[in-house]
Design goal:
InterPro entries: ATAP, ATAP_core_dom, FeS_cluster_insertion_CS, HesB-like_dom_sf. GO terms for molecular function: 2 iron, 2 sulfur cluster binding; 4 iron, 4 sulfur cluster binding; iron ion binding. Pfam families: Fe-S_biosyn (PF01521). This is Iron-sulfur cluster assembly protein. The structure is a single chain. The chain is of the alpha+beta class. The strands form three sheets. Strands 1-5-6-3-4 form a five-stranded mixed beta sheet.
């Protein structure tokens, strides 16, 4: 289920959250003592990196008035309107392996990425 923080329509295609990403984020939030029914993971785009834009994530206690709020697998994800222009249709995942573990964003809007994968251009 997805909603706009101001009560707007269906936004299921805005950002998809995998079960692995939701479980990891919820675990981290609970470890921080956050209320997972109100708070959520903020996913945003910022200027930076060698390709021009980079992803950012942080926990917020509640959405901003104009955020798009997507809830899947029990995790609420907040995306501001400017960031949604760059990451709409993306999938947030969590991967763990022998080399590294962390959240990843699969973004169909990306035209180019830097060599290390930390920044992108649309």
């Amino acid at each position: 289920m997805s909603t706009n923080a101001s009560g707007g329509g269906d936004l299921d295609s805005a950002v998809t959250i995998t079960q692995a990403a939701a479980e990891e984020a919820l675990s981290l939030m609970e470890g921080e003592g956050m209320d997972v029914d109100i708070g959520g993971l903020r996913l945003f785009v910022q200027q930076g990196g060698c390709a021009g834009l980079s992803y950012g994530m942080r926990f917020d206690t509640e959405p901003e008035e104009d955020d798009r709020v997507t809830q899947q697998h029990g995790l609420r994800v907040f995306v501001d309107p400017a960031s949604m222009n760059y990451i709409g249709g993306s999938t947030l995942d969590y991967e763990s392996g022998l080399q590294a573990a962390g959240f990843t964003v699969e973004n169909p809007n990306v035209e180019a990425e830097c060599g290390c994968g930390e920044s992108f251009r649309t």
